Amino acid sequence: MLGLLLIYFIGKRFYDLSEEYNQNKWLYAVLSIVVYYAATFVVGIVLAVLIESGIVDFDLENTFIVTLIALPFGLGAVYLLYTLLEKKWKKAGALMKDEIHDIGRQMDE
Asked: Could you tell me the pTM of the whole model?
């Protein structure tokens, strides 16, 4: 249940960011969730390799410990994506003026 709340807040944050810069809202909300799960998956693979090589020794069947280890990496990847997108959109000037109100006005007004 807490995982669903985490996914909701991650997606909502990216949805709001993309709405602020007039980008595709649902694309970036879903992309953020995919990045979170991809990062946690990569950490799981790295942990499995470290356990099989004998460097780290703990039980992979204890999902709570694996989740606690993978959670910061997933959140870090999402935060990195958020800051990169925000900087890119600020730099590109993607915050466009709503031009619907300018329809029919003279150019020199």
From this structure: 0.80
